[in-house]
Amino acid sequence: MTISIKNSNPYLVNRIHNYFYNKGVQCMLCNEETEVSLFELDRAEAELLMAAFTKHFHLKSATTLAMAS
Fold first, then answer.
1. What's the pTM?
2. CA 58, CA 40: separation in Å to the nearest integer?
3. Is the dihedral of CA 59, 61, 62, 68 positive or negative?
4. What is the mean pLDDT of the chain?
């Protein structure tokens, strides 16, 4: 499974990249440093990583935001 995370702020993209790199996840900066791609993840690992990522960066998932509307 491959996951891509996009952001227009290069500083945040570098923080996101460093976060996953330090966790030992195979990742790469893409599209002129506006996107981070994560490679070779199984579904369970991807779900755990995304949960930890959203908590670490104080984000909410899109499904939570859609239910609030």
1. 0.83
2. 25
3. negative
4. 89
